[in-house]
């Protein structure tokens, strides 16, 4: 009961309203989500996906527009990172994409969806809204149940944000890349393996 009271206070709901809503929402989620969580709650697991931007020097005039990201307001290479929902380990990293390419387009291009089990989906942020294979937050004005639904998804999705932050601990990815661009993907792949090793030593807090 103490855990319910804690989350109720965080969401500014009364305890009994929250407790009733929470139980109904969990039932709702289990019914609608095409994946299950294999964790201590006895459900099956899936993955969380997101893209991370790595800044680069302004390319030559022929490609600079292609690499410019309106979201980051600079020239970047984007990578799609998919992690295990349970422990946060990286299970898939895409090749590098030009910064102007939308996250949803990258997801469709990587083949990750084809590798999922039948009926399985991925948890993603609002950039992926509209993709039937993604479990995304509800946009717009939300009622109590929908706000709680978004809160739960954000709690699950925070692990991929943690992993993306670990990439930026490396100066070569956090700062503008000044080497031949064809080497960028190789370095990103090597660092992905190093991050997985780091996750074994310093796991993401549950």
Cα end-to-end separation = 19 Å
Q: How would you characterize the largest beta sheet?
A: 7 strands, mixed
Mean pLDDT: 77
Q: What is the number of strand segments?
A: 7
* Coarse morphology: globular
Percent of residues in helices comes to 40-55%
Number of helices: 7
Radius of gyration: 19 Å
Secondary-structure element pattern, one letter each: HHEHEEEEHEEHHH
Which regions contain 5 or more consecutive residues with pLDDT less than 50? 1-20, 30-45
Category from helices, strands and their pairing: alpha/beta
Strand proportion, as a percent range, falls in 15-25%
What are the salient characteristics of this protein?
single chain; 206 residues; alpha/beta; 7 helices; 7 strands; 16% strand
Task: Describe, in short, the structure shown.
With 206 residues, the chain is of the alpha/beta class.
Architecture blueprint of SSEs:
Layout: H1 2-11, H2 15-32, E1 47-55, H3 64-67, E2 68-69, E3 74-84, E4 90-93, E5 97-98, H4 103-110, E6 122-123, E7 134-135, H5 144-167, H6 171-174, H7 184-201
Parallel strand pairs: 1-6, 6-7
Antiparallel strand pairs: 1-3, 2-3, 3-4, 3-5
Helix pairs in contact: 1-2, 2-5
Walk me through this protein's architecture.
There is one protein chain. Strand 2 (68-69) and strand 3 form a beta hairpin. With 206 residues, the protein is an alpha/beta fold. Strands 1, 2, 3, 4, 5, 6 and 7 form a seven-stranded mixed β-sheet that branches. The relative contact order is 0.15. Helix 2 (15-32) crosses helix 5 (144-167). It is 42% helix and 16% strand.
């Amino acid at each position: 009961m103490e855990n319910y009271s804690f989350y109720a206070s965080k969401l500014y709901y009364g305890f009994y309203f929250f407790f009733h809503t929470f139980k109904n929402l969990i039932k709702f989620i289990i019914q609608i989500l095409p994946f299950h969580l294999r964790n201590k709650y006895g459900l099956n697991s899936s993955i969380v996906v997101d893209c991370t931007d790595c800044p680069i020097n302004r390319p030559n005039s022929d490609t600079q527009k292609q690499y410019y990201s309106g979201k980051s307001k600079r020239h970047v290479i984007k990578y799609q990172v998919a992690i295990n929902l349970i422990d946060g380990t990286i299970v898939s990293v895409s090749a590098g994409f030009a910064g102007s390419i939308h996250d949803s387009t990258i997801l469709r291009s990587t083949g990750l969806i084809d590798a999922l089990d039948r009926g399985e989906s991925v948890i993603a942020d609002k950039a992926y809204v509209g993709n039937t294979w993604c479990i995304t937050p509800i946009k717009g004005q939300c009622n109590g149940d929908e706000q709680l639904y978004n809160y739960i998804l954000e709690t699950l999705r925070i692990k991929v944000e943690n992993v993306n932050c670990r990439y930026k601990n490396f100066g070569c990815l956090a700062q503008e890349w000044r080497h031949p661009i064809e080497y960028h993907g190789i370095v990103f792949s090597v660092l992905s393996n190093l991050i997985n090793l780091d996750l074994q030593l310093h796991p993401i807090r549950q």
